[in-house]
Each structure stands twice: as structure tokens, then as C-alpha cells.
Amino acid sequence: MGACLRLFRKPIVPSTFPGLLLDHAARRPSAPALREKEFGIWQTLTWGELAVLVRAIACGLVEAGLARGQHLVVIGENRPRLYASMLAAQALGAIPVPLYQDAAAAEFVFPMGNAEVGFAIVEDQEQVDKMLEVRASCPQLARIWFDDPRGLRHYGETGLAPLDALIAAGRAYDAQHPGFFAAEVAKTRPADVAAMFYTSGTTGHPKGVVHTHETLIDRAAAGARFDKLTADDEVLAYLPPAWIGQNIFSYAQWLVCGYVVNCPESASTVTIDLKEIGPTYYFAPPRVFEGLLTSVMIRMEDAGRIKRWLFDRAMALARRIGPARMDGRPVGAIDGLRYALGNLLIYAPLRNTLGFSRVRVAYTAGEAIGPDLFTFYRSIGINLKQLYGSTETAVFVCLQPDHEARSDTVGVPIEGVEIKIEASGEILVRSPGLLKEYFKNPEATAEVLTGDGWYRTGDAGFVDAAGHVKIIDRAKDVGRIFGGANDGALFAPKYVENKLKFFPYIKEAVAFGDRREKVCAFINIDMEAVGNWAEKRNLPYGGYAELSQKAQVGELIRDCVQKVNADLAADDKLAGSQISRFLILHKELDADDGELTRTRKVRRGAIAERYQVLVDALYDGRSEQYVETAVKFEDGRTGKVAATLKIIDVPTFAAVGRAA
Fold first, then answer.
1. How far are the Cα atoms of 106, 379, 400, 405 from residue 374, in angstroms, in the given order?
2. Residue 143, CB half-sphere, CA atoms under 13 Å: how many?
3. pLDDT digits (tens, 9 = 90+) for 587-616
4. In CATH terms, is domain 478-649 a member of 3.10.290.10?
5. With contact defined as beta carbons under 8 Å apart, do 160 and 144 qualify?
6. Which distant-in-sequence residues (6+ apart) come within 8 Å of 358 by Cβ?
7. What's the pLDDT band for 659 if we cut at 50, 70, 90?
8. Residue ranges per domain, the chain?
């Protein structure tokens, strides 16, 4: 009887996203929920105001015909009214489907047709134009609402209306049916579908990953408990809402914890907005951290001699003892005093310049992060850690504890997660956050979900002696060298590519070598970093293509590749993956040209097919190769870029422990 009484008295925790919203609105109606920067001024939306807005949009959607179980596409940057639209759909038992705002119209055709989408809420004129273009292929798209009316005054297409009109209609419907909204929210169960996220589709059509309220909320709550997140935390929402990582950090965990989500004014103001907000909880892929560090180092190159000397001395100390301090290990009294002085003069101002003065927890994921980059941020007092997860696992599988952050692992399995490594090296995961299914794709679902509840990640890795998970590569991409001195050696292209991208001068890399006698690579230079390097040396250039083919730039990148080879030689298993030859591409790899996914993963197969003539040149021993490439410009025009690319040989090294 006593146990039953205790169970009865246990507080009821809301178990759906609309339930979480209404709980915050009831307990703390005047607390800020969302902020949006508009015309340079931060505007605040409280939990109480958000609940009222969601209610109006939900009633407007049902009046327009959206029914339980149907899909609503949401496209745009992080905007409060788009977040409210997703909550409104969930309140009705409908399913929001966020899509990438930078995708071309043609990329929307498959997911919208696959999900049989009849309703869309988008941000602005750009997205409206895409939706109208898509209609020819998706005739079921009946209604389109837009948040920002600029440029849309004279649009008269059927079914197109401002979001304000939907809200007004919803308020009228709510007045006539005052109990409707609450009744709909009460019908929704934790096991109901909450959202669908489309994968990047590196090898074919994207797959719709179906998640329930239960899976998303469980993982969001587990991550929050791991890092002790509270309603007092703040985040800056600047990554695409269609990406599961952004959705977890700025939507699921936002509703679980009740912290404040800040929406930048535009992509171009993110750095400024980051400094103004000073988030306490921050997430970015490695390329963002690389870009921030590159900007710092470029500015230091322009500084005076005394300032550079002071910065170099302070950073040498920080690299030596900073990570130990972050890990809670003791440092000497004199070093501690020196670090405190360095913090006053260098580290604290640097954190403030980066916008990280208040960051308590910072995460990076998606790609491996370079050890030097990882050490830099931790050495100046930023608690940067790595995590491991995917769209199918609702992100949180492994996280790094505060005092166990290492650049070569992705952390330990967190609450509720089990890890199993198959004989092939593939990692299997069992977790409360696993996808329900791939939408309308039972074959693909059966490929990744085993009968006893394990999810096949497709990643190859292992668990080290400390219980941390290490990722080598995608299991399907791990190959073997055929022929030559390294016959039979392991080839892990992503591992090699990530090592190349650890250098600030290299933005992207694509490695080839499976079933070949040696490894070769394409490289994209980082225009900002290499451009600054060239300007310091009075090296003239007229653009990316010209700069990339400068002999001096070739030598700069050759030195980076040679260092990677020396590093690989120290790993007996991967010594055969050393790069023998490379070329620098004449254009940056671009998602619009089908070379990258929207999450900036290289489409290795598509690149190899598109640039087959260059792959052949690398392996045929040529010293240069002419190439013409079709490209798509930002304004929609198409054209061609042509260049003669130099092919550069690089020395390789005998593996440690192997005879030369």
C-alpha cells in the first residue's frame, strides 16, 4: 500500500512535446522561451506567449484540413514561428518534417512525394519559390504559408497565404471550439510519431527516419542529465533545423529543460550574435571550430610583435597545462599562477572574442576533430567534448564526461545505451532512442534493426581499455590495398580524410585506394587560410582556381600530406593508407553540384564518377590533367570551369615495427 501511495504521489512528467510546452507555460509563463534578433534588437517570446501562438497555429491548421497522422513540411532558418508551427502540428497528432533550407527545389521532390505532403510552412520568398516550383511534381501540395512577407505582396498562387492569416483563422476557430486544442493534446501518446527527419542520402534517395515523442524526449533527457542542463542555460540555434543534431539541442532538449533558444538574425550575423548572447551550452561541427580558430590566427598574424610574442608564450603554457586543468588534474603552484595571469591577459579576452565567455558545455560531432584544434579550445578553458550518435539514434549514444575528454574517442555509452562490436568491427547500438522505422521502406528498416533490438550503425570501431568508443570509418568504406608493397593493408578513407582536414589549409579531402595498389587524394584548400598565407608572401592570385594551382600552394599542401603520412606510419594497421599522390581541385566541392550532402559529407562515389578523368590521371602516373566541370551558381545559372591541374607526388614512410 505504501509503495502504491508513493507511486501515486510521484510528479507526472509530461511525455509529449506539446505536453512539455504546456507544462512550462503553466509553471513559468513569463520566463523567456525564445529570442529572435530582428533589425538588430533581440525580441523575446515567453513560454506563455508561445503556448498561445501554438494554440492559434494548431487551430488554423485543423481548420485548413491538416489531420492526425499527416505530414507538414517546415522549411527555413531557426525562427520562433517555425518552431511554434512544429509544436502546433504535434499538438494535432500530425508530423512535422523539417527540410534543409539551402536545398534546391529538385531536392524537395522526393521527400515531399514520399511523405505525401499536402501542407507546408516556410520562412520567406526563397522557400515559397521552391515550393511553387515543386508543385508540378507534387500536386498534392495544396497549402503553403510563409512567415516573412517581404517580396510576396503580388504573389497570387492558389493556396498561398501568410502565416499571419493562418494564425487569425486559428484564433477564430479556437473561439468557436474552445475545448478543441486541449482535447487534441490529450489524445497524443508518447509512442505516437513526433517527427520525421530525412537522411542526407549519400548513396541514393534519402530515407525518412521516423521518431516518436518517447524516443526523442528520452534521449534529450538523458543528455540533459549527463551534462546537468537546467532552465538557466542558453543556446544559439544557427544550424539547419532539418539536421537531427540542431533539432535535439534546440528543440527536444529545449522543451525538456526549458532553457532559452536564441535565433540569429541571419547566417551572416551568427558570429556577432554569438558574442552578444554568450550561450552556456553550445554545439558546432569541427568545421565551425576550425573556422573560428583560423580567424583568430589570421588576426594574430596581423598583430604587433610584442602582442604576438605574448600570445605565443601564453598559448605554449596553455597547451602544456590547460588540458590537465580542464580534466581536474593538479598543476604546480607556479604554473597555476602563470595560467591565472594568462587567463587575465589572453585566455578570457580570447574566449570573449569567440563568444564563449559563458560556455559551460560545448560539443562537436559529425566528423573527427583534430587533436591540435581540440587541445586549443580545452587549453584556454572551454569545456569542448565529443559525442557520437546519428539521426537513427536520436543523437545521444556516447558522450564524453567532463574530465575524460579526448580527441581520439567519442566518449562512453550514456544512460540506457548498450554497445556491441561485431567480428567485422561494426558497432551495434541498443537504446531507448532508436528510430521506429524508415518511412515506407521496410527493407531498409530490416537492414539496420535486428530482431532483438540492435541498430546497425554502419560504423567500424572498438571500445578501448577505458571504456571509450573509437570510430575508425564507415564499415562499408573500409577497404583493402591490392598489389604493391602494401598488398592487403587496411584502407580507411574517412580516417585519412579527417587527418588531412586537421590542417587549417585543407577544407575538404577525398581519398581513393580501395582495391588499388596505392592511395591518392583530391584536396580542397581553405580559401581564407591559404589566401591569407599567400598575401603574407606577396603571392598574387585572381581567385580560387588560380590560387589552388600555384606551385607554392602545392608545396604547402604537400608538406601537410607528408605529415599525415608520417603520422599514419606510426599506426601499423593503417600505415598502408599513406597518400602517394594528390591534386588540388580547381573548384570547391559543393552540395549544389551533387558533390556534398547538405550536412557537408562527401559523396565519394559521385565525386569519383564526376572526376573519373582525374582519378585515372592520379593512377596513370601523369604529372598534370586538363578538366572541365559543369557548375551551378548561387543565382541558379549554370556554367563551366576549366583548369589544368598539377599532380603532386608525396614520399611515404615504412610502418613502425615494419622493415623498411
1. 38, 9, 13, 9
2. 17
3. 999 888 888 887 777 888 889 999 999 999
4. no
5. yes
6. 234, 278, 279, 280
7. very low
8. 16-283, 478-649
Tell me whether strands 426-430 and 455-463 are parallel, antiparallel or unpaired: antiparallel
C-alpha 399/C-alpha 637 separation (Å) is: 44
Residue 295 has pLDDT above 50, yes or no: yes
Q: What is the dihedral of CA 224, 226, 231, 236, to 10 degrees?
A: -70
Cα 241 to Cα 54: distance, rounded to the nearest angstrom: 18
pLDDT at residue 85 greater than cutoff 70 = yes
Return the top range by mean pLDDT from 233-237, 323-327, 424-428: 233-237
Residue listed under C-alpha cell 508540378: 136
Alpha carbon distance 658, 575 (integer Å): 10
If we measure between CA atoms, which residue out of 543, 560, 482, 470 comes closest to residue 514?
482
Kindly tell me the sign of the dihedral angle through the C-alpha atoms of 543, 544, 548, 553. positive
The answer as to CATH 3.40.50.12780 being correct for domain 16-283 is: yes
Do 368 and 222 touch, CB atoms closer than 8 A?
A: no
Strand partners, 282: 362
Q: Under 8 Å CB-to-CB from 583, ≥6 apart: which residues?
A: 521, 522, 523, 614, 617, 618, 625, 645, 646, 647, 648
Q: What was the pLDDT predicted at 328?
A: 87
The neighbour count for residue 20, using CB atoms within 10 Å, is 22
Paired with 38 in beta bridges are 41
Spacing of C-alpha 656 from chain mean position: 36
- Whole-angstrom distance, CA of residue 24 vs CA of residue 48: 8
Residue 562: burial class (beta carbons within 10 Å; 0-12, 13-18, 19+): middle
- Listed in sequence order, the residues at least 6 apart from 592 whose beta carbon sits closer than 8 Å to its beta carbon are 104, 632, 634
Picking from 504, 442, 19, the residue whose alpha carbon sits closest to that of residue 213 is: 19
Contact between 93 and 66 under an 8 Å Cβ cutoff? The reply is no
Averaged confidence pLDDT in the chain: 91
Name residue, grid cell 587541445.
Answer: 375
Tens digit of each residue's pLDDT (9 = 90 or more) over 394-453: 999 999 999 899 888 999 999 999 999 998 889 999 999 999 999 999 999 999 999 999
Q: Are 507 and 568 in contact (CB under 8 A)?
A: no
Predicted confidence at residue 77, as pLDDT, reads 95
In this structure, the chain runs to a length of: 660
For residue 167, give the H/E element and its range: helix 163-176
**What pTM, to 2 d.p., does this model score?**
0.82
Distance, first Cα to last Cα, the chain: 76
The three cell numbers locating residue 531: 589566401
pLDDT digits (tens, 9 = 90+) for 608-649: 999 999 999 999 999 999 999 888 766 667 788 889 999 999
| Cell of residue 537, nine digits | 608572401
In 3-state terms, what secondary structure has residue 527?
A: helix
